[in-house]
Amino acid sequence: MMRRLGNAAAIGADKNWVMKVTRSYRFPLVIVAAAGLLTSCVANPGPPPIETGQEAESSAADVARGDAKASSNSSENHGEADHGAKERSGGRRNSVEESQVGIGIDPIHNGLNPHLQANQQAVVDDIAALALPSAFVNGEITELLDSAEEVELTGVDTDAVATEPKPEGAEDQVVVQRVRYEIAQQAQWSDGTPITGEDFIYLWQQMTRTPGVVRASGYFAISDITSTAGGKVVEVAFSQRVHDWQELFHYLLPAHLMNAPFAAVREIPASAGRYQIDSVDWARGKLTLHRNDRFWGADPANIDVIELTEIRNPRQGLDLMRSGQISFADLTPEETTFLAYNSLPGTQVFRFNTPRQMQIDLLTQSPIFSQQLARSEFARLLDRPEVAVQAAGRRTDVRVPGYAESVAHSETRGEEAPDANKNTIDGDATAAQVERLRESSTLQRPLRIAADPTDPVASAAAAAVVDKLVAVGVHAEVVANDFATIAREMVPNGDVDAVVSWQDTSASSVNLADELLCRAPGLSTEKAAWIPQCLPDFDDAWIQVLEGSVDAEYGLDLVSSLDSEYVLQIPVLDERRIRVLGSGIIGPEEQLERWPAGLKSAPQWRLLTAGDKAGVGGVGRGLQIENPQEG
Fold this sequence. Notes:
This protein is an alpha+beta fold. The protein contains 17 helices and 21 strands. 25% of the residues lie in helices and 19% in strands.
């Protein structure tokens, strides 16, 4: 699978090189006269609580001990944590004074933990951006930190701090890079608990221990994390250099409340963004965000309450937008979604593609796909446009990687040719050409395609693939199980041969390193088994990409060679989305096409008032907007 990587320059070996990033404030100090007006709309969190007897220093051992204790009674504690989260919301009720806006979203498949492969949805990422803190966003330092710097190494620096438990084989590694983070003193969770190094340690440990996580390669390069100054100064030691270290510690989670296994966390018990999650009603498909009164940074949210409503079909969404119950929607399209919303007076409609792509991972540790010839037969058998249409359940707004946009519109595509860069011809295999698959699959052990049943698109794709296999005489079946079980148990045990899921293909060195990650120091067997590109010739390739010692072209060629030579991943469908802006709100720009962040920009929104100019905020019939790739 081809992935685009941003410019990655090799870092020089000069040990005196130091890079420091500090947070800058937008408002000039000269605007003193407006201070009274500003404080009327800025949240005033007050100082974070100080716990008596708190240790001044901590390390990974502190969090590890708590994590081990929590796992012994995770089910009971998880229920208590969820209940406690509702109590911590303070039983808040919307009053007539509170401003509120309704938003239409896709149904949430599993949960809100943005680090799990099972939860890779646009809406989950949007909610995380509004509720969870990150060290950097788009390369820019955030309100979470006062500063972040790569510090100078002196002599031979070894990681001698006894952190328990460390990954096996990671003890006393030579440290090749250190990064120091200074957390803002006022930074705190919505329950008043300060954000500290424990939150950094928790995320690192869980990302390296939990199968089925995303963007993990950078965390495998970390050998230790320590914190001082009451947890507000965090120092991260790396045994492998990470060129884009600013991509780490994105969407921190509250370590003090995470009393369940990482993969079992469905809700977020506390927030630290401009919004906090006030309530979740899974049965009714309702999620309420409330302005976080403990947010300490500049530019707090303007609107008090955001009511997210799952839209299950275009008719429901149209009715809600006509009645004014929702003013904005970000949805996966159905066959008539664009046509329906585009005909609704007073709306702007925006179609765009995201970096997410549905793929089929062929697992080299499976008893069937351990043979490359079997994987090649499988690839030749598939008609990817046909699978994409069946998976999406539509022919409009379907983009198949390597094909023209129009390929999905035709029932018969005899003259349609795939992209010249593609190495296999879709759907040209007959029963006589899949003899290896027919011989290696039996009634007792059929070829098994796994998909999470809560993801309707992935499940439909798996079913379409199995139907094609059975049609040419291959014993095959769909394995429907939650993604955590698939990654943790079924893949390592060789119980499934392929997995259908969504992957992030955005331009990121960490994402590209994930493609190549096979064996890191102390890498768990579960993680190694999950990675399909576990080939001897590429053991260290992830390190070269992660440290920036190879250029983008080399990294892209390497990933491409894996897919073409070894047939490890088959791209099926690029994600296509539709945003709709009705009346009632004013966003960052008048035109919806200039809202690249979508729901993430909600803190900047404000309600439309009588004094606002007519036509702003989406008033204007059926304005069509096209953008091939989200900015």
